[in-house]
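forwarding from the other thread:

> can someone predict this with adenosine-5'-diphosphate?

sure thing
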Amino acid sequence: MVILKFGGTSVGIPAHFGTALERVAQAAPRDPVVVVSALSGVTNLLAEYARDPDARVRLSAALIDRHLAFTLDVGLSGESIRRELDAWRADHASCGARPGALTGEIRDRVLSHGERLSAAIFAAGLERAGLSARAVEAGEAGLVTDDRFGAAHPLPESAGLLRRGLASRPPVPVVTGFLGRTRDGRVTTLGRGGSDFSAAILGAALGAQEIQIWTDTSGMMSADPRLVPEARPVPRLSFAEASELATFGARVLHPKTLLPAIDRDIPVRVLNTTAPGEQGSLITAAATLAAESWRVKSIASKKGITAVTIASSRMLLAHGFLARVFEVFGRHHMIVDLVTTSEVSISVTIEDESRLEAALAELEGIGRVEVRRHLAVVAVVGEGAPQRIGLAGHVFTLLGGVGVGVEMISQGASRVNLSFVVREEDAEKTVRLLHRGLGLDVEPTVEARA
Ligand code: ADP
Ligand code: ASP
Ligand code: MG
């Protein structure tokens, strides 16, 4: 069997919707399971609905209009989403008038309507194209998660439950991405962009031959094409390379996507719904060196980063300093991206500051703490790249030449990633400069494509 996941731009634009249906029809002999995101823009709309009580009446009407207009645009009847719209209206009636922002479990239930509506439309589209299909809510199919609303993680039993829940095929299941359900049946979301992760969870549970991520770019590119228009598709990546890129800001894949694929050694293909004939990117366990100069395949960047430095003159000769620092981060569930140490200090970067305040109070008991905000991580990724003599020198010479200061460097910890921290306002300039300076805008050689 094969998983086909379609993102918001694939399911939310009428012209691409038809292409997406054709891709599933073509995959019919391979036992397809479809995963869909909400129509483009819909999750943002629902998040705004949750945040702003004054906008709820208007946004509810906009949500309904958008989906009715879309179904008509793609030649389906409003009847195909009647049940889902009724469910939305019921939730709107029960929580629309609540004061303040909707959070936690209620917010997740609000957000879930985007994927539920989209799955219903997609299943109706497949039916009209002559394929027997059914919309399935992931939680109902067996995707059971913990109860960390907004960032839920699947529980181990979900693999077996999903296998049983989706055993009878066809009809082709059109499963809601992004969603799960707690053991006691409350809907959860896996984090923004989480439909890619859903696709991989399903692929691993069902033993897929391949997980296809259909999006709006021609695969994983040498940089975000919105930042670097001359970015090129990267035909082959290892799991390690793609994971680093996803972790450090390549939004095309949710950072957790590759975990289930790695576990079960399932190839992931990133493909373009708007250009379905292109080869896209194939991500597998095998490490293939890019033959291009510097062996760099892609550059990613992530803004909104905060660096925390803990300095202690007592660190010298002190046992357990690092352990104490990480114990604090661990206890506060703070995810640390980059780490650098010196004789007397340790610096880490974090993305989510929501628990920083509480952690700081404890870190101050260990040493002097400095917090720097408005930073960005830039990751230069390619198998073997960090070990290549001269790469770091070349990168930092390029940056020095345009006056970009580097705040932290992490090299050598990973065999695929040279990453460093710059000021947020320098991030885009840095990616563009390195993309050109490392030769990524040049057409790769034939060997590099092999
Ligand atoms: P979808 O709705 O299909 O899930 P997303 O918007 O989540 O699509 O992800 C696709 C976007 O990711 C692209 O439009 C692009 O701007 C961005 N992106 C960032 N880095 C990369 C990269 N290295 N390769 C491809 N796309 C990237
Ligand atoms: N619709 C969700 C979001 O916008 C999930 C996804 O697109 O992957 O975050
Ligand atoms: Mg996405």
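Residues 446-450 have pLDDT under 50 and may be disordered. thats all i got for now
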